[in-house]
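I'll show a typical protein example:
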Amino acid sequence: QVQVVHSGGGSVQAGGSLRLSCTVSGITFKYNCVAWFRQTPGMSREGVASIYTGGGDTYYGHSVKGRFTISQDSAKNTVNLEMNSLKPEDTAMYYCAFHEGWPPDWVNHRYYKNWGQGAQVTVSS
C-alpha cells in the first residue's frame, strides 16, 4: 500500500523561505512522478512542481518558476520542495502526490491516486 507522508510548511513573512518534504513508501520510488500541488478555499488544486524520480527531470508551474526548487533524495525515498522569495499569494494548503510512472499531464490532479495529508503554508505581507 502506497503511503505519502510530508512534513514542513508553516508561516513566514513575504520574501522568506520554507521547505516541504515528502516521503513515499510501499512502492518502488524510482521511475515515477512525485508532484506538489496547492489549494486555497474554493479553488481547484494547482500543480506547483513535479519530478521524475528516474532521471530527475523537474517541471514547474508558471507562478513559482525561478522561486521554488524540487529535488529528490532517492536513498530516503524523499522529495523536497524549497520555496524561496515567498509571496502572500503562495499562501495555501500544499499537498504531495505520487503517480506510478509518468502521468499524461502532471499538472492535472485527477491523475494522482496517492496523496499526502496536506501542510499549510502561510505568507504574510
About this structure: The CA atoms of residues 22 and 121 lie 15 Å apart. The chain has a mean pLDDT of 96. The chain is about 0% helix and 50% strand.
